[in-house]
# Entry
Amino acid sequence: MRLITSSITAIFISMFVFVQKPVKAQEPSELAQKGKIIADQNCSRCHVVDPAKKFSGISSTPSFQILVTALDDWEKRFSSFPSRLPHQSIVRFEDEEPEPNTTELRPPVILKHEDIDALVAYARTLLK
Ligand code: HEC
# Structure
């Protein structure tokens, strides 16, 4: 009986340990790696995207690391950044026409809808 009780306890403990395993992976996921490439290509002319390249970007624009560290709702903001200032005039999705009375950046920042998930996954890797 004692053996059964301790086996059951051991099973429960190991389940608990398994469930408690940290969510943050050691290696960035494929999605996050894709997000880094998209960010390097499309966001780094303004934002410091990769903390290892701190002299990229322009100093008036917050770095990705600052955004994810300082803002509790960073995930919501990254998920909706195309409609947040100043991006409405900077970014468009490939299935959208350019705004008739605006001049696009050169090269323009044109994203696929699924790029947003990748950018959010990359931003998550910058959380300390
Ligand atoms: C032409 C410059 C420029 C480019 C390109 C750009 N951003 Fe930004 N972004 C800014 C500036 C400037 C701000 C700060 C706005 C402010 O202070 O309210 C900002 C803010 C943000 C914020 C925070 C928004 C908020 O409301 O708090 C996010 C998230 C963001 N950018 C993501 C991106 C991503 C992802 C890309 C690339 C796909 C990108 N940005 C490309 C200039 C840019």
